[in-house]
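#lab-general

N.A. 3:47 PM
ok so I finally got the sequence cleaned up, no stray characters, all 453 residues accounted for. can someone with queue access submit it? mine expired

B.Y. 3:52 PM
send it over

N.A. 3:53 PM
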Amino acid sequence: MKLDFKNKRIVVIGAGRSGQALVRFLVERGATVALSDLRQREQIEGLAALQGLPIRFDLGGHSLELFEQADLIAVSPGVPLDCEPLRLAASCGIPLLGEIEIAAQEITAPIIGVTGTNGKSTTTSLIGKIMQAWGKNVFVGGNLGTPLVDGCSTEIDGAVVELSSFQLESIDKFHPAIGLLLNLSSDHLDRYPDLQSYYQAKLRLFRNMSAADFAVLNADDVEVCRLTADLKATKVWFSRSGRQVEGMVRFGDRLVWNWHGADIQLPLTELQLSGEHNVENAMAAMIPPLLQGCPADLAWQAVCSFAGLEHRMQLVRQLHGVNWYNDSKGTNVGSVMKSLAGLPGDVTLIAGGRDKGSDYTLLRPLLEKKVKHLLLLGEAAEKMAAELSGSCEIRIAAGMESAVQQAYEMTSPSGTVLLSPACSSFDMFRNYQVRGDEFERLVRELPAEEVAS
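B.Y. 4:20 PM
back already:
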């Protein structure tokens, strides 16, 4: 059921991309809107596009009277629900709804929701590619980039939505037809008091689902299996390790879809995406379209035509026998582990940034096995160096330019340079895309001529 926003006093808190999309959405529906953010106007990208709209800007801090007098608070995903203005609004009985919740109540088409610690963007994009190849007009976005409210203005056959734990915190009636939980590992412990709180935020994806809906789950992930034991949704599994489950299973160089008597086999040799983690992503992505009736051959062709996302294990350059990879989207320890696992040895790893409360010691076995040099930068550099001391040669770089130059000088031919930070970018860069773009620029500027020794 659609919400009625006409003449309602609504405060949008958080002026990032989702917040700005919420402002446009709510103004179009007749609401009286205020946009509130702790940052000053000049620190917020994209605000110029809102000029001329009948809204109040509350920037450089939060005016608490706005929150006390509102009919509704629309919460952007980056805003902690325990911040002072939201605690005040809640104490006044004012409802708080996130962008995903607001948008989902406008969308009547089936929604496929994708969450997990790693692989969300690639899996979401793959599902979108399959559905589009099948001739469906689908919205693809969410945490991936395009806010879900932007999908409310056109007729669609469905929506494929990447969902972060932050977005799932503020849902109420959100009800996907198919929900995917790809994996669970440590992340965002700068926001959550402990790991279980983070996991529980992820599990909110399934809170309104019934046996008529499908939960697509990783049979190889111990935490996923443990925490989804009591789900009401019908479970469909995927297993890269060959577990005998109903769903999508890998056996050697092929995938087998064995749902309800089907026996469809798909050759992995046709997959463009590299790395074992991408085998999992491809398996998970195939399942929702197959459940909805998409022909398997068509779906597999769409998956195999996909070469990957920017900033995710993206080969930037081959120089003097060294492969340079941009994995700037690797913002947590689990993601870096997956990326390293798919590489041969003799890796120079560039990591660091803003710490998210991670346990970097989990990287130690892979560093000892695969990494020759570790170059650290940003706020987390000292902590990472202390936790990983002795695992390989470790140096602290002054910044990205220094790290790239040192990697260029120290990596031997046939080696690999990998930017995979295990941290957020916000200490040095606006986002992971800007960080990755800067890395790529510096790598492309490296001289093609051999440096005389």
